[in-house]
Amino acid sequence: MLKGARRMLLLQGPRVLRDYTIALGKNPKGPKRNQGDGRTPEGRYLIDGRTVDSAFHRSIHISYPNTADIEFARKAGLAPGAGVMIHGLPDDASWVGDAHRELDWTNGCIAVTDDEMDEVWELVDDGTPIEIRP
C-alpha cells in the first residue's frame, strides 16, 4: 500500500493483480503512533482475520500493532491502539460509492468501495503479508 498515492496494490509476486484507490485515516501523514491519532499505520503486517458483521461492509483485520509499534508506544507512554482494518463503506452508506475517496475519513483504517471489498475478500487469504508505505 502506498499511503501518499492513496493506492492499495494486490500483488502476486512482482505482478500487480489489482490496483485500488483508497481512503485512509483522518490524519494520514506519518505512521500510527497511538490510539485515537487518526493515522493509518506504516510498516509490515499480516492479514490476520475477517469480520462479516462489522459496522462496515466486510472488514479484514491487519495485525497492527507489530513489535516495533508496541515498543514505540511503550517508550512514549502511549497506548498503541488496535483494530486497524481494510473495509468497505459503513453499512448504511454504500450509496456513497467512489465519492468516499474524496477525503480521508476513517479512524486509521483503509477503505475501499463495497464492490472492491468483495473482491479483496475473495482474493486475499488470511496470513497474507501487507506492507504499508508512506
Quick summary of this structure?
This protein is 15% helix and 26% strand. The chain has two helices and seven strands; from the N terminus they run ββββαββαβ.
Average pLDDT score = 95
Share of residues in strands: 25-35%
CATH fold-type name: L,D-transpeptidase catalytic domain-like
Sheet with the most strands: spatial strand order: 6-5-4-3-7
> What overall geometry do the principal axes of the alpha carbons give?
globular
Q: In total, how many beta strands?
A: 7
Distance between the termini: 8 Å
Helix content: 10-25%
Q: Specify Rg, calculated over alpha carbons.
A: 14 Å
Q: Quick one: CATH class?
A: Mainly Beta
Tally of structural domains: 1
In DSSP terms (H or I, runs of 4 or more residues), the helix count works out at: 2
**CATH-level-2 architecture:** Beta Barrel
- Name the helix and strand elements from N-terminus to C-terminus, one letter apiece: EEEEHEEHE
